Amino acid sequence: MSAVFLGVRHHSPACARLVERTVAELRPAQVLIEGPADMNGRLDELLLGHELPIAVFSHYRDGQRAATSWAPLCDYSPEWVALRAGRAAGAQVRFIDLPAWHPAFAERTNRYADAEARYAEATERLCRQFAVDSSDALWDRLFEVEPDGGLAERLDAYFALVRGDAEADTGDRARESYMAAWVRAAVEAAGDRPVLVVTGGFHQPALRALTASGTRDRADDDCWERGADGWPVVPAPPDGAMAGSFLVPYSFRKLDAFAGYQSGMPSPGYYQQVWEAGPEAAADGLLRVVVERLRARKYPVSTSDLIAARSLADGLTALRGHPSPARIDVLDGLAGALITDDLDRPLPWTGRDTLTAGAHPAVVEMVAACGGDRTGRLHPETPAPPLVHDVAAQLAGLALDGGPEATYRLDLTDATDLERSRVLHRLRVLGVPGQVRTAGPTHGVDPVFTERWEAQPVLGREAALVEAGAYGATLAEAAAVALTGRTRSGTAEADGAAEALFDAVLCGMGGFSEQLLDELSSCVGELQATGPLGEILATALGLWRHDRVFGMARGPLLAAVIDGATERLLWLLEGARGSSGVDFPRLRAVVAVRDAVLHAPELLSVTREVAAGVARRIAEDPQAPIDVRGATFGLARSLGRVPGAPGASGDPARVVRTVARAGADALGDWLAGLFALARDEVTGAVGNDDGDRTDGAAESLIDVLDGLVSALSEEEFLLGLPALRQAFTFFPPRERDRIAARLLERRGVRGSSRSLLRTTADPLLIAGARALEESVSRLLARYELDTAP
After folding, report:
1. What is the mean pLDDT of residues 90-105?
2. CB within 10 Å: which end of the chain, N or C, has fewer?
3. Residue 454's pLDDT is what?
4. What pLDDT digit, counting tens, does each position of 495-508 carry?
5. Residues 6+ apart with CB under 8 A from 702
6. Which of 100, 74, 404, 80 is nearest to 251 (CA)?
């Protein structure tokens, strides 16, 4: 007997009812379902008695690729109904799709993702024909609100039309070939009894063609080997790869297209009611829940508004020719009655848009009411990955299982508290909810030795732990693998690389993080942005020099990171080109290079002499950004004179006069770079043209700057004031006081230097007001209005 194919839409109540009815009428020997074939030995686990929704979570990792995917199931998923009803009818039930790790699922995180993109043209044509806005409204119109009579025939016609001549991609062709091999094996095994095949509607026409009598493709048989039992062999992961599948709790929130879900029906809470009580009851329930939610938010909804919404929904149902209210009828009725404002974007149910900030509160509550808040729960006997058991044991052993309201204050100088901190940080980097750190060190040299952790909502904790099991069997291993993955993407997310390094330290990776640091070393060799690279160098160098808590000081693990980042930064800085302005992250990167050369020379392949030479070249390059020229001038002087090398970058006083010719704003930017590296050029002794230090006999840079600024015209001063003021923000209060005292001394004025450091208002505001007064005075004089009457 041949197979009976049911093409379904994932998470459709109408299709679920059809599957249940077909199983009861057909009494098949075999029920074949689109789902991961590697779960066939664990179907009893699926049927333990969970509270749906749940999902089959699958993971895969090898040296080149890491992937995760989900196959969600809810009460009204046709695949779930086929599994449950097939077992109840005494049929042999099997999943027949490729395992989720297979390359056919590359880049696909949802097994049941709709193939809408492949047949968008057909669905758009049907939407125009039936005058609906979206494929979801079209589906409701054709299937969910129509009587069940003739449903199978309508589905066949629909999927034949939307698939049409569409060419499946390589992954779908492999999947369909594999599923067809299962269908042929099932037909042979069933003899004269029927075989029911339940798959996504996009695949149904292809499977029917591949298994039709007389069209059996020998290439398929050669491609998919059969085992001794006559069934296709389930492909095994490559040697050395780590792959597996586990059940996880799922939620309606994750299942909702309005929250970004990729397949099936939107609004799972609404369709759960359709499944349980029918469209009429679901419509009534949605009206009631939306009003209750709005009133709870103090949004005014009167009884007359509710009556108007119900009347509009009923009218739209009749106008659109729906035998029962469709979801869109109820939502449009509510919108018409409750929203009187002009909206700046289409209503989300006219497509599949996710809600954005600023959405109308009535729209937010309608979408939330449709989505529902149900979260699944696994049966207590459900197998869990080893990580779940390891985490439970560690939390209990370290007294971190204090319940949902527990808070912890940890002393990082205490060995036990340090280990507790590491466990909590490992859970944090794995994204497992339960505790959030509210205080603690923020970088490698932060002189903070305590942490505070406070409870946070634990919703989704069980699922997050199971999913984190894809990274490893123990908490330490899983955190290390997760952090290594973050550094692999460092070229795309450069700002996160330094954070990943410090997270590794907080997690206690010193003993086993060689792979992580190898990845980070490779990452720093590819970064293009000096700012993030400087953050990595500063973090690594600070830990290497000063850490006394986390065990990283003077350790060998950070050497490659420090060396690679220093060399890469010197190369990037020498090639930098740009306009005016100050790039503070870039200046901090130059500071990090200086500190590495001065304080960790034994780790570097770049010598002090080479670094000083690079700094001099950049400082003298007119094409380099002006702030970088100032910074590298300071870097060259910080590194000192190199024996046998040409003279240093010159006397600061002479260089400052040269830079000032480009304008006061350029001078301010250059000084910002210099002060970021060498503030002592102003507050201490300066060098002469030969680069040697003096005892102050040479002309003071303060005197030079005072003379240059005093010589500026009012207009030039106002133009350059913001940049000059920004440059002096690098000085702490005590050093500013010394500069102010020197300026008073130059003018022979007695008094406190603080009189120059404090003003009655913002200096920029005062300067602007003075410029305005002078502009008004000139204007009055021009029109001879400057004399008193």
Report:
1. 91
2. C
3. 92
4. 567 788 888 888 88
5. 682, 739, 742, 743, 746
6. 74
- Residue 177 corresponds to which tokens in the numbers above? 């070939």
Count of C-beta atoms within a 10 Å radius of residue 620? 15
Distances 677 to 563, 592, 595, 733 between C-alpha atoms, Å: 20, 10, 10, 17
Residue 446 confidence class, pLDDT cut points 50, 70, 90: confident
Q: How many CB atoms are located within 10 Å of the residue 574 CB?
A: 15
Tokens encoding 658: 């040269």
**526 Cβ neighbours under 8 A, 6+ residues apart:** 490, 491
The residue-averaged pLDDT of 519-542 equals 83
Which long-range contacts (C-beta less than 8 Å, at least 24 apart) are formed by 44-48?
45/247, 45/382, 45/383, 46/83, 46/247, 47/83, 47/84, 47/87, 48/378, 48/379, 48/381, 48/382
Return the DSSP state at 361.
H
Burial grade of 135 (CB within 10 A; 0-12, 13-18, 19 or more): buried
Residue 341 CA to residue 330 CA, distance in Å, equals 19
Peptide bond into 53 cis (omega under 30): yes
pLDDT tens per residue across span 326-379: 999 999 999 898 887 777 778 888 877 677 777 888 888 888 899 888 999 999
> What is the distance between the alpha carbons of residues 338 and 307, in angstroms, rounded to a whole number?
11
Q: Amino acid letter at 405? A: E
* 754-782 confidence digits (pLDDT tens): 666 566 566 667 667 767 777 787 777 77
Percent of the chain with pLDDT over 90: 36
Q: What is the DSSP letter of 384?
A: -
Helix, strand, coil % over all residues of the chain, rounded to 5: 55, 10, 35
What is the average pLDDT across 226-235? Answer: 89
Pairing of strands 92-97, 30-36: parallel
The answer to whether the beta carbons of residues 723 and 626 sit under 8 Å apart is no
Tell me the percentage of the chain whose pLDDT exceeds 70. Answer: 86
Q: Please tell me the distance from the alpha carbon of residue 591 to that of residue 632, in angstroms, as a whole number.
A: 9
